[in-house]
Specification:
alpha/beta, 10 strands, about 60% helix
Length: about 525
């Protein structure tokens, strides 16, 4: 360490002599300025920041006494050595009272000057080391206090009520009307499946730590802690809504400065610091919902998205409905059943990612088995790697939206594969049957007669017909006949019994009953209401 020295005397010859008298640089000193009067000396003190001043005690523009008194009043740690004549000895003694280190009597001897500046150097270096040691001690005390506070907060979040008292006793946190906990986690870290390298993770953690710390310091309340890889903030507050304002402030800063997606969970307010663990747990639960609701959000405990209204149906209903929609090639039904299944899965999961994945996984396996049973295998959707690959794929999605997309893709491909399947011989057979029924609906058509047309066993034909149309043979025939009956009813003046005969019914009463079952009114009532309209 080089000691900075200012020389001051109103006699230039004295200044030149002082500079040449001893080897300043060899002794560890650097002369940083020379003053010819008190005013120059004041200015150089401000500009050159000296450690040691060697000055005449009596100069124009302010005496040495004035200078040393000003340094004393300002509590400046600058050593001062005065040069004086014999007749100024009384002034020198006064200067010593204000903290001057020593004085030299003119003419100054080399040995005396070397002794005095060496003494000054020892004191300056001693005090400098002491100051550094004090700064280090203060630093470690602050660090130890921070570590202690973090450990207490960790214990408090685990339900240790005694930690609350210790935090209050240390003055780390003040009593307030409410206490809440906010939890922050980068969305990249969801579920512990981060794609960051260790170095990247540390940089992100460091940057987040600084933003949270600076934000809390600027707001004047809140304690930050780290727990299970997340950032936590204990917030004492007086007015409802304060934790949300803090969360919004942090969220916007992280998004803007770090270009990083993070989610924050805000716990329920509690009335005392000792109940902070309750708020912490609810904040974690709120944070979990981002898997279903989406990332880069702020979620308040108790204000998560509500489950669908009404009684939730069994998951087996949409599972069966999807297969039915695929085999009947009903695209509208396919969308409806897929959406219903996803809604039920979310509801049944109760916030659990694993349970949601399990239900979707089982649904896909069931669909595979059902499609395989009708000769349309779809196992290749998973890349030929089997069930483990499917489970890994579903688990790899950051949010449920990704799982939903994968399920929808599987269902859509099943639908399309079955559509291609229908373009084979069975499609042609079905078209032949439908065309015959459309042309001969007025005749005595039976399941057996239709099966005979395409050379098929009646039992198998019944299954075949329902599989491809979604309806049994009798229902389909009735709908075909009623469609023509409705046209005749509205477009002709035929009697009801005549219409019945035209569409294959020899019993008018039976015809009327079937018509009412389909359209809600007897044929005559339907015709009358239509004519009124």
């Amino acid at each position: 360490m080089q000691i900075r020295v200012l020389l001051a005397d109103d006699e230039p010859v004295i200044l030149r002599g002082l500079k040449k008298l001893i080897p300043w640089e060899e002794m560890g000193f650097a002369i940083v300025g020379e003053a010819n009067d008190g005013n120059e000396l004041r200015q150089l003190i401000r500009e050159a920041r000296p450690d040691l001043i060697i000055s005449d005690i009596n100069m124009p523009g302010g005496s040495g006494i004035d200078i040393v008194r000003e340094l004393y009043e300002q509590a400046r740690q600058i050593k001062v050595v005065f040069i004086s004549a014999y007749q100024e000895f009384a002034f020198a003694r006064q200067a010593i009272q204000y903290g001057a280190l020593d004085y030299l009597v003119k003419p100054v001897s080399k040995k005396h000057l070397e002794d005095v500046v060496s003494k000054a150097a020892s004191l300056i270096r001693e005090e400098s080391e002491g100051e550094r040691a004090k700064e280090m001690l203060d630093h470690y005390e602050r660090k130890n206090r921070t570590v202690t506070i973090e450990e207490l907060l960790d214990s408090l979040m685990d339900g240790d009520k005694r930690a609350a008292g210790e935090l209050i006793r240390m003055g780390a946190i003040a009593l307030s009307r409410y206490t809440g906990v906010c939890v922050l986690e980068p969305d990249e870290e969801m579920g512990g499946d981060s794609r960051w390298e260790e170095r990247e993770r540390k940089l992100v953690q460091f940057a987040l730590n600084n933003i949270i710390k600076e934000t809390l310091e600027s707001r004047g309340n809140g304690l930050m802690f780290h727990k299970d890889g997340r950032f936590g903030i204990l917030i004492p507050y007086e007015q409802p809504g304060e934790p949300l304002k803090l969360a919004e402030d942090l969220h916007s800063k992280v998004n803007a400065f770090l270009k990083l997606k993070v989610s924050l969970g805000i716990g329920v307010p509690v009335s005392g610091i000792e109940a902070a663990d309750e708020s912490y747990r609810s904040a974690l639960e709120a944070l979990k919902t981002r898997y279903f609701t989406g990332v880069n959000r702020i979620v308040e405990a108790g204000k998560e998205d509500a489950p669908p209204a009404g009684e939730m149906r069994s998951i087996s209903e949409p599972q069966a409905g999807i297969f039915k929609a695929v085999t009947s090639q009903n695209e509208e039904m396919l969308t409806e059943m897929t959406d219903l299944l996803l809604a039920i899965v979310k509801h049944l999961a109760g916030g659990s990612k694993q349970l949601a994945i399990t239900n979707v996984y089982n649904t896909i396996l069931l669909l595979e088995q059902e499609m395989a049973s009708i000769g349309v295998p779809i196992g290749s959707f998973q890349g030929g790697h089997g069930q483990n690959s499917l489970l890994e794929s579903l688990s790899g999605h950051a949010t449920f939206a990704g799982v939903a997309e994968e399920l929808s893709a599987v269902v859509r491909q099943a639908f399309e594969r079955f559509a291609r399947k229908l373009s084979n011989k069975e499609v042609a057979q079905l078209r032949q049957v439908k065309a015959h029924m459309a042309e001969h609906y007025a005749e005595n058509i039976t399941l057996e007669s239709m099966a005979a047309i395409i050379y098929m066993n009646p039992y198998y034909f019944s299954s075949f017909f329902k599989k491809h149309t979604g309806k049994n043979f009798k229902q389909y025939l009735t709908e075909e006949r009623m469609k023509h009956a409705l046209r005749l009813l509205l477009d002709t003046d035929l009697m009801i019994y005549e219409i019945a005969e035209c569409v294959g019914y020899n019993n008018a009463r039976h015809f009327s009953d079937m018509f009412k079952k389909m359209y809600g009114k007897l044929p005559q009532e339907y015709r009358q209401s239509a004519s009124v309209e």
